[in-house]
Write a structure and sequence with these properties.
The protein contains 5 helices and 5 strands. The protein is α+β, with helices and mostly antiparallel strands.
Amino acid sequence: MGFNGSPTTYALEFDHPELEGLKVRVRRGSVQLRNDYDDAEKWQERLAIFASVLVEWNVEIDGVPVPLTVEGLTSLEDTVLLPILQAWMEARRPTAPLEQPSTPGETGSTPPPETRDPDLEASMTMAPLAS
């Protein structure tokens, strides 16, 4: 049996209090589709690409459901449309988990103080490799 390559879908999440209750489900989109979106020069092109990944939403204007089309997208106010687009862009961004939690102010090149060995550090010669 082969690998199931069904499209990944996301239920978008919004931090904006004015969007409370908004439900939007989208497909992640292929690598090519996401590249086309990023390379699109015109707003209408981006909206057409985004409309192609919309699966469902509960958006209504005056009690009438808004269609999952470019026309539906352009009928929205920017205070609704832009957070939806932003949430999709954030959801489609690949993420890699941290190997271990990081501490603010520390870099990965310096071990935490409790793992440092002052005697070992003192015995290391610090000289330029080349002059």
